[in-house]
Design brief:
By secondary structure, the protein is mainly α. The chain is built from five helices and no strands. It starts with 12 loop residues before the first helix and ends in a 5-residue tail after the last helix.
Length: about 90
């Protein structure tokens, strides 16, 4: 019997990661990257990752930790700071 497609996990990659006995963080990280690349570019990855992490899943599974990290708010994402401004800071101009 085929399971219903999950819009948050259209290829079932995250679901299958939880089913693999003895899977490690490195394998989960690779699966998480494949999952992110399979989603449309217009989606909010962090929101979806948080939603997936919040489901009834084992808290000690390596995928749970990665999903929580992927869904965590990012601090200080002000964009690139290269060139002169990156070396001298905002007050230089």
């Amino acid at each position: 019997m085929m399971e219903a497609q999950d819009p948050d996990d259209p290829k079932g990659l995250i679901r299958e990661a939880y089913r693999i006995d003895g899977i490690g963080e490195a394998e989960c990280r690779s699966i998480l990257i494949d999952w992110a690349l399979s989603l449309p570019p217009s989606v909010d990855y962090a929101t979806i990752a948080s939603r997936l992490a919040g489901r009834d899943r084992p808290g000690d599974h390596p995928m749970t930790g990665l999903l929580l990290a992927a869904g965590a708010p990012r601090m200080g994402l002000g964009g690139r700071r290269g060139g002169r401004n990156g070396r001298l800071g905002e007050s230089a101009h």
